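#lab-general

N.A. 3:47 PM
ok so I finally got the sequence cleaned up, no stray characters, all 514 residues accounted for. can someone with queue access submit it? mine expired

B.Y. 3:52 PM
send it over

N.A. 3:53 PM
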Amino acid sequence: MVRDYLILGAGPAGLQLASLLERDGCDYVVLERGSGPGTFFTRYPRHRQMISNNKVNTGFTDPELNLRMDWNSLLSDDPELLLTRYTERYFPHADDWVRYLTDFAARTGVRVEYGTEAVRISREDGVFSVLDGGGRTWRARRLVVATGISRLNEPPVPGVELAERYDTFDTDPASFTNQRVLIIGKGNSAFETADSLIEKAAVIHVAGPHSVKLAWKTHYVGHLRAVNNNFLDTYQLKSQNAVLDGTVESIEKSADGGFRVLLRYTRTTEPLRELRYDRVIVCTGFRFDASVFDDTCRPALVIDDRFPEQTSAFESVNVPDLYFAGTLTQQRDFKKSTNGFIHGFRYSARALHRVLGSRHLGTPWPARTLTATPEAIADAVIDRVNRSSGLWQQFAFLGDVVGVDGDRVLYQEEVPLDYVTDGGLGPAPHRFVVDLEYGPEHDRIDPFDVDVPRVVENDVDHAMDSTYLHPVVRHYRDGVLAGTHHLAENLENDWDLPAVHRQPLAAFVKESLA
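B.Y. 4:20 PM
back already:
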């Protein structure tokens, strides 16, 4: 039997895509190596506190606006399938998240084969064959990999195999009592681990060659989150701990049973520094495991071979009909937007569903028609930027598209921006593409520094200088960028003032069409 779609992984991305295929009556099946949905989250994060917001009390009654503050719920038509119904904790316990995914799978009726691990993937005559651990072969014309980044990313350090690993170390802080500990890595897993050991360890060093980047400053939620940065206080307020800016050159066992570590500092000309520790833990993130693919369909890898390289349609650049969903799609916006996280890739999974429908079922991207006037176009854009959760969560990645061809105006929602510019929607004499963006220097400005000049709120004359999140509308004439219009930033993110937002936008549309 050759199916239309085969999805690998019943995590949040695989379930999100499968629920949409199930709704449409498509021919698909999901293969999941674990015994239930969300196997990854039964183990990670190791300390069981997620860092994805679960804001229950928003003051909104509109479900779409609530999704702007809900970073965990998947997209469905069931108002009860929201993580906010399962816990009020702002940073949920991972067990609640797994329980939610289990209910999502059951209530949406997705077809999942659990306990089915893909061990070898090949392709012949346009058909993918997936051999599972039980010896059964699954075949499909199109394969969607939603397995996440499941393999530990180990740095090429001599002796690294002697260290403990984030995925397997004993998380009980008591086992670190009065010990000197080195944590290699400067991401959330490293600082999550360091924070958990503060009360027990004697000395904790967190080391890595790059500067610590704080999410509240860069607006990239994969950088160090405030919920994990208590450790920084213990460093800067002289409590024995430290953040080391340098490269670990080697790890060796010492005669006393501890470790001898050679470190090369990044910011000084000091020669190699020898440091001694009782424990060393590697917390350097994860990478995509491409080992199951044979030579007939092995995808090209990028970013130090950590991610599969993809087109704007989330398709492998070298293997036709091999698609990716979930955190793997962060290759398209690496450390810029939110495809690496649930609140981002739930929308890109929906976009992938629309791409697949357009390519293989002849289903055009969902659209509605508008009256062919600048005012009607401006009003539609204003209404969307003030309500859409997809544009809000997938800033600078997804955009709404208004195509104008004479008296025919089509409004298409949440299209990947690169997919538009690559011609995925076909030609159009005029297109207006709207997304939400931060200013170009937003990650270099300290938002809490009152001495840094800022654009005045609702300053229509200097809207293009806005640094905070705000709508940007671009006009393309026959596929070529012809003009750009910024809507002034607003404290409450209400971009609907007639003289500040609506009228200037309508004037821009009118001038562009003229």
